């Protein structure tokens, strides 16, 4: 890969478009750190940033043959990172609103008559998906979102690190968001 370090972005892009994976590796190594710092600052979470930046590069690789010859990689990656961040923020906000509404429904137990069936279906789907989570992940999620414990409290109860709790909850949200997206949009 050392042979590609002195190549311009344009030259790397040309090589990439012709299928040269080493050119992709150089672009990846050149732009990953900058993008990760940017996305980490925007999301406030290094692990979420890893996922977002990885998604940007996967998409970049998949679209390599259709990229414009005069594309500015710097601008492309900045725009792609910004779009990933916005998408994740929107998804997170939707999931948070859904979970808050679900928590309120579970606590009050008295939704309006026309919402009863939908709420019951949402609760049933949510509970079913919750049961499919790995046991430790499910426990951390329930302690956080349902019992409203802090990460530190959960870590102490489960005998794991705060970081592991954070990973469990983040992964649970990703899984639940993916599984319940259709119902979330119908519900909201």
TrEMBL record:
<dbReference type="GO" id="GO:0003677">
    <property type="term" value="F:DNA binding"/>
</dbReference>
<keyword id="KW-0731">Sigma factor</keyword>
<feature type="domain" description="RNA polymerase sigma-70 region 2">
    <location>
        <begin position="27"/>
        <end position="92"/>
    </location>
</feature>
<keyword id="KW-0805">Transcription regulation</keyword>
<feature type="domain" description="RNA polymerase sigma factor 70 region 4 type 2">
    <location>
        <begin position="126"/>
        <end position="175"/>
    </location>
</feature>
<dbReference type="GO" id="GO:0006352">
    <property type="term" value="P:DNA-templated transcription initiation"/>
</dbReference>
<keyword id="KW-0804">Transcription</keyword>
<protein>
    <submittedName>
        <fullName>RNA polymerase sigma-70 factor, ECF subfamily</fullName>
    </submittedName>
</protein>
<dbReference type="InterPro" id="IPR014284">
    <property type="entry name" value="RNA_pol_sigma-70_dom"/>
</dbReference>
<dbReference type="InterPro" id="IPR036388">
    <property type="entry name" value="WH-like_DNA-bd_sf"/>
</dbReference>
<dbReference type="InterPro" id="IPR039425">
    <property type="entry name" value="RNA_pol_sigma-70-like"/>
</dbReference>
<dbReference type="Pfam" id="PF08281">
    <property type="entry name" value="Sigma70_r4_2"/>
</dbReference>
<dbReference type="InterPro" id="IPR014327">
    <property type="entry name" value="RNA_pol_sigma70_bacteroid"/>
</dbReference>
<dbReference type="InterPro" id="IPR013249">
    <property type="entry name" value="RNA_pol_sigma70_r4_t2"/>
</dbReference>
<dbReference type="InterPro" id="IPR007627">
    <property type="entry name" value="RNA_pol_sigma70_r2"/>
</dbReference>
<dbReference type="InterPro" id="IPR013325">
    <property type="entry name" value="RNA_pol_sigma_r2"/>
</dbReference>
<dbReference type="Pfam" id="PF04542">
    <property type="entry name" value="Sigma70_r2"/>
</dbReference>
<comment type="similarity">
    <text>Belongs to the sigma-70 factor family. ECF subfamily.</text>
</comment>
<dbReference type="InterPro" id="IPR013324">
    <property type="entry name" value="RNA_pol_sigma_r3/r4-like"/>
</dbReference>
<dbReference type="GO" id="GO:0016987">
    <property type="term" value="F:sigma factor activity"/>
</dbReference>
């Amino acid at each position: 890969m050392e042979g590609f370090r002195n190549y311009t972005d344009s030259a790397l892009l040309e090589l990439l478009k012709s299928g040269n994976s080493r050119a992709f590796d150089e672009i990846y190594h050149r732009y990953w750190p900058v993008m990760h710092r940017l996305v980490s600052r925007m999301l406030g979470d290094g692990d979420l940033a890893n996922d977002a930046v990885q998604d940007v590069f996967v998409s970049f690789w998949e679209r390599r043959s259709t990229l414009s010859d005069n594309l500015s990689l710097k601008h492309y990656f900045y725009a792609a990172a910004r779009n990933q961040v916005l998408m994740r923020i929107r998804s997170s906000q939707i999931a948070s609103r859904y979970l808050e509404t679900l928590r309120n429904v579970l606590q009050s137990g008295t939704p309006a008559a026309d919402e009863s069936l939908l709420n019951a279906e949402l609760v049933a789907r949510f509970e079913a998906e919750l049961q499919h989570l790995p046991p430790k992940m499910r426990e951390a999620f329930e302690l956080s979102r349902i019992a409203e414990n802090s990460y530190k409290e959960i870590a102490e109860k489960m005998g794991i690190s705060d970081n592991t709790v954070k990973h469990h909850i983040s992964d649970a949200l990703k899984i639940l968001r993916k599984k319940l997206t259709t119902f979330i949009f119908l519900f909201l």
